[in-house]
Amino acid sequence: xxxxxxxxLIVEDDKKLRALLxxxxxxxxxxALGADDGKQMAKILMRTHIDLIVLDIMLPGEDxxxxxxxxxxxxxxxxxxxxxxxxxxxxxxxxxxxxxxxYLAKPCNPRELVxxxxxxxxxxxxxxxxxxxxxxxxxYTFGPFQLNLSTRHLYKxxxxxxxxxxxxxxxxxxxxHPRVPLNRDQLMSxxxxxxxxxxERSIDIQISRLRKIIxxxxxxPRYIQTVWGTGYTFxxxxxxxxxx
Length: 244
Known about the structure:
With about 240 residues, the chain is α/β, with parallel strands linked by helices. The protein folds into two domains: about 5-125, Response regulator (Rossmann fold, 3-Layer(aba) Sandwich); about 140-244, Winged helix-like DNA-binding domain superfamily/Winged helix DNA-binding domain (Arc Repressor Mutant, subunit A), CATH 1.10.10. It has helices at about 15-25, 40-45, 65-75, 90-95, 110-125, 165-175, 185-190, 200-215; strands spanning about 5-10, 30-35, 50-55, 80-85, 100-105, 140, 145-150, 155, 160, 180-185, 225, 230-235, 240-244. The strands form three sheets. A five-stranded parallel beta sheet has the order 2-1-3-4-5, sandwiched between helices. A five-stranded antiparallel beta sheet has the order 9-8-7-6-13, with helices on one face. The protein starts with 6 loop residues before the first strand and ends with a strand.
């Protein structure tokens, strides 16, 4: 395993807070860069690889939600952790809906921020310092779709589809447990681990987005069905998996 530290980009216009977070992140073995706004962020993304973005919602010019939406619209799947105002559930919901991987309310504990960063990197299959390499190479096939756990890609009839890291993690759990009703807490735990308390509304948002990707008619889902009073279940005609 190489020793190149993963690079975290903090997009935050409060220079003192940004410097504090950068310093704390470096203490845990990561590399850290900072940007005041979306324009600086874009310049950094053009010239260097970034493993994860910590993105404040309240920014001068284009706000964090718009930046997140633009990145996902450009098919950029870099993991994003958004910083929201304390108690602002609407921003959290919107952020998750448009493709953010997690959220944290400000003011935040730097140690919790690092824990969230590590959790996201584990979920997205990125290398976390000190974490073992899993080497999972299974491919799951259902209908015209193939889900490759090694490359973290979803294909339909051989064509790669755009899917966020959160959507991938949730779909991977469901294809591994076909026809098993899973409640929101179980889905959250299996897809994201117990790194933070389940934010149940995010599961419904991810399910809605997954249905738009894999269902012919999202209003009449074939694969991801609702189990009233429980949660959701994955019901394909068959699921085949193989090791590569």
